[in-house]
Backbone:
């Protein structure tokens, strides 16, 4: 749509050369932005201007740009992914902003996510949690027919709700304790709900929660910021389910 | 050179079982002596790395993202095919094979497609065992839906998130092997060169994207599961990081590139909104189960609100032209029909580049809630991008580059013509012919990864002595020096145009000249323009920053530089193929009703190109295609 109206915005962006650099905010102007630009396309435009002015562009993680890979990770005006319900940064559009707005852009900030450069953080700790037990230990081949075990539709649906997690880490960035409880709870719940995941459920929840603690993630104190900022709307009830699984595992 | 695909002979129904039996095995205690490199961790790469690790091989896996869970397989929405025949609607392995060979316009290898169809059922079982939450019916059984090019319901799905769920299943299997120590995972590494020693693939050179360091890795076999190349069109449904770089590096080291002109333009994507646009977003083909595609019959109606155009003044052109498949006609046909309608001035929305995908009838028949349950996340995505409500007014869609059927040439064992180099998933050319049917990409990725390569790679490994070549070999040093030279060159040009500007310009050439409708003139034009743009790139590109650091401009510059070489090959392949088939449509070759006109007498072969240098024409090698089970016929969906 050819919108004639364009916006000019002031961006206050976190710049940090490396993990050991102290980092600081820098101010930039985004010009000729239309309401149809995505937030990342707005940053692309700013970067093109920076390159043309012989300055280093802002680096940020992104890849699919359709809200599913979980790569993009920015805190916008204090909110992970910018505060629009069920939306990743890459799907946030500039129609949510007004001409003349000032926008603060920061990386995820959490003890377990060291900053790599500018807006990019290291989220390897999330992989570590999955490696601790976020799977069923089935072999390739040698498994029964897919219809051999029936799964009630409501259970399959609830497991899918949990499985929608894209592993972006917004829940951690939003949590005052830097906890990965929603991330971990979603995977624990998905597999605990399904019959295929039951045999290892007790061991899984113990290993995954232990890995999360070792990685430096905090614990849950029921703020529920994680659920509010989750771009996939993963429900905080999955933290409760993980806690139930955790208690059950003590007696297993 | 006439290429031999080394396909098994004899009855097709026994071909894969017989071949598996004939393959030599690696003794379990010997497996750990072999190192295998896996580049890319999407469906094919993650499934293969996990399965090979579990078998006991030492696997080193690489991805450019920060985690293997981010690979672009994750964005596949609609589903995965299998010949389970759970609905008892007439499906079978043979029918899936038939649909796939016909859907690919008779340009795929029969034996490969049979194998794919046969193992499709194992894939569903495997994913269920991993805890992939497929859709279930109220009795608790697996549910199916329909996809294009098939008259049976054989598509398994998980909401509009099937790719995500399957990838996370493969990622979890991979994570288990990483924990077990059989797979060493290297994130944020981009493969920039293939190392070939005495004609055999022995390793890779990668850039550590965090530190900028160039690293060498040696192995007894190298597998590329590095995806497709349609970002050569700049705007596509691929992720921003998807590139031809790894595959092109292999091609420059002697691997043949097969059928590069077979590119899929997906019919249902959200139209481009402006020049600044960085990518296009797909709306799953599954929407065509319940959505009806139409344009106004009269040009004067195109500016009207869709609700003001009565049914009699709408042209449901797919239902009209292809009554037996209707809105589920294959992708190539649906895309071309949309282009024809828009070229005739009947397109809607900005620039007249859009057609309607309308759910009004389905909502009346089934209720809005049912449609929301089936496709809720897709409607949500549509609204975020366009600010329009798809339940209330029809979606506007337009075709966009989506998938590459072409890729590196491989034999039946998925090995390229370079011994020791295997190619999996979208990166190879093997099963989709000239057009891929919906819900078949996930099937192929997982088939190659879980059920093909774990067998076929053994047949190669028994012929080599493990650990023969190490990274201290001079070829590794030379490779690092070559990559370093190219990097320094890019950083030192300091020209006037950014990398994105060049990529966008290349995209304009490829989309206009090598897109949905190609002609001798347009292709000749592209073959002139692309090298000229490439020359300008190497004189005038501006890449800021250094090579000893995280530098996204430099990463992108390398990828665009490769697209500027590869794009020319794509155009040359399209020019040489004097026929229309599947996604390759030459305007000179069409039937009276505008359908693709194949030329089986002259072009029933795989065209595999050997790179000879940028200043020389590539050399064409042919692998003749034989159709013994499914007889060559004019493809009709009427």
Residues:
């Amino acid at each position: 749509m050819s919108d004639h109206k364009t916006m000019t915005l002031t961006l206050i962006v976190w710049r940090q050369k490396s993990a050991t650099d102290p980092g600081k905010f820098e101010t930039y102007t985004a010009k000729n932005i239309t309401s149809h630009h995505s937030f990342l396309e707005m940053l692309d435009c700013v970067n093109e201007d920076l390159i043309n002015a012989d300055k280093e562009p802002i680096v940020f993680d992104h890849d699919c740009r359709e809200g599913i890979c979980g790569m993009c990770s920015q805190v916008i005006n204090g909110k992970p992914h910018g505060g629009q319900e069920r939306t990743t940064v890459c799907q946030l559009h500039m129609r949510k902003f007004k001409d003349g707005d000032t926008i603060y852009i920061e990386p995820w900030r959490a003890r377990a996510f060291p900053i790599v450069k500018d807006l990019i953080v290291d989220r390897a700790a999330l992989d570590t949690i999955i490696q601790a037990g976020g799977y069923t230990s089935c072999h390739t081949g040698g498994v029964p027919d897919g219809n051999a075990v029936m799964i009630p539709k409501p259970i399959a649906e609830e497991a899918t709700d949990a499985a929608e997690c894209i592993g972006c880490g917004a829940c951690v960035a939003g949590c005052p304790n830097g906890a990965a409880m929603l991330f971990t709870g979603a995977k624990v719940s998905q597999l605990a709900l399904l019959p295929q995941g039951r045999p290892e459920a007790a061991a899984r929840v113990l290993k995954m929660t232990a890995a999360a603690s070792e990685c430096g993630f905090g614990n849950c104190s029921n703020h529920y910021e994680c659920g509010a900022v989750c771009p996939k709307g993963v429900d905080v009830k999955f933290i409760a389910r993980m806690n139930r699984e955790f208690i059950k595992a003590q007696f297993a | 050179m006439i290429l031999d695909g080394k396909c098994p002979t004899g009855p097709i129904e026994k071909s894969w079982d017989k071949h598996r039996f004939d393959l030599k095995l690696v003794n379990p205690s010997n497996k750990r002596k072999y190192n295998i490199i896996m580049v890319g961790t999407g469906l094919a790469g993650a499934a293969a790395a996990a399965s090979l690790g579990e078998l006991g091989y030492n696997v080193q896996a690489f991805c450019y993202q920060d985690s293997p869970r981010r690979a672009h397989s994750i964005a596949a929405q609609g589903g995965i095919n299998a010949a389970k025949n759970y609905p008892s609607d007439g499906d079978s392995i043979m029918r899936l094979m038939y649909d796939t060979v016909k859907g690919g316009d008779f340009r795929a290898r029969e034996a490969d497609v049979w194998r794919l169809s046969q193992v499709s059922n194992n894939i569903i079982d495997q994913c269920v065992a991993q805890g992939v939450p497929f859709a279930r019916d109220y009795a608790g059984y697996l549910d199916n839906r329909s996809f294009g090019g098939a008259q049976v319901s054989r598509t398994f799905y998980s909401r509009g998130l099937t790719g995500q769920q399957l990838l996370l299943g493969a990622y979890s299997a991979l994570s288990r092997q990483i924990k077990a120590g059989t797979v060493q995972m290297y994130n944020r590494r981009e493969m920039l060169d293939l190392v070939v020693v005495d004609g055999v693939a022995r390793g890779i050179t990668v850039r550590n994207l965090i530190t900028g360091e160039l690293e060498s890795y040696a192995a007894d076999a190298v597998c590329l599961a590095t995806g497709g190349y349609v970002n050569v069109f700049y705007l596509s449904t691929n992720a921003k990081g998807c590139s031809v770089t790894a595959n092109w590096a292999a091609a420059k080291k002697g691997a043949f590139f097969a059928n590069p002109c077979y590119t899929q333009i997906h019919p249902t994507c959200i139209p481009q909104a402006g020049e600044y646009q960085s990518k296009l977003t797909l709306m799953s083909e599954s929407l065509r189960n319940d959505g009806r595609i139409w344009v106004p019959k009269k040009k004067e109606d195109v500016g009207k609100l869709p609700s003001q155009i009565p049914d009699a003044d709408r042209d449901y052109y797919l239902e009209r032209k292809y009554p037996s498949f209707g809105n589920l006609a294959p992708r190539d046909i649906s895309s071309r029909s949309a282009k024809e309608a828009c070229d005739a001035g009947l397109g809607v929305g900005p620039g007249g580049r859009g057609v309607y995908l309308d759910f009004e009838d389905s909502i009346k028949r089934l209720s809005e809630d049912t449609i929301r349950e089936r496709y809720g996340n897709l409607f949500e995505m549509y609204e975020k991008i366009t600010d329009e409500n798809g339940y209330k007014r029809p979606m506007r869609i337009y075709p966009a580059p989506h998938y590459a059927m072409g890729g590196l040439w491989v034999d039946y064992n998925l090995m390229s013509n370079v011994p020791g180099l295997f190619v999996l998933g979208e990166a190879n050319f093997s099963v989709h012919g000239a057009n891929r049917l919906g819900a078949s990409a996930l099937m192929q990725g997982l088939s190659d990864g879980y059920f093909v390569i774990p067998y076929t790679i053994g047949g190669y490994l028994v012929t080599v002595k493990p650990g023969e070549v190490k990274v201290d070999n001079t070829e590794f040093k030379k490779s690092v020096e070559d990559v370093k030279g190219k990097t320094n060159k890019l950083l030192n040009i300091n020209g006037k145009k950014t990398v994105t500007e060049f990529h966008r310009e290349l995209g304009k050439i490829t989309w206009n000249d090598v897109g949905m409708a190609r002609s001798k003139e347009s292709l000749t034009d592209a073959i002139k323009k692309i090298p000229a743009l490439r020359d300008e790139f190497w004189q005038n590109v501006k890449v800021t920053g250094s090579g000893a650091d995280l530098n996204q401009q430099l990463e992108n510059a390398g990828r665009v530089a490769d697209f500027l070489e590869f794009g020319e090959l794509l155009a040359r392949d399209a020019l040489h193929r004097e026929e229309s088939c599947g996604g390759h449509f030459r305007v000179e070759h069409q039937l009276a009703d505008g359908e693709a006109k194949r030329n089986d007498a002259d072009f029933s072969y795989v065209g595999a190109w050997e790179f000879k240098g940028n200043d020389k024409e590539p050399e064409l090698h042919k692998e003749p295609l034989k159709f013994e089970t499914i007889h060559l016929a004019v493809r009709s969906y009427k």
Remarks:
- Residues 72 and 239 of chain B are 6 Å apart (CA to CA).
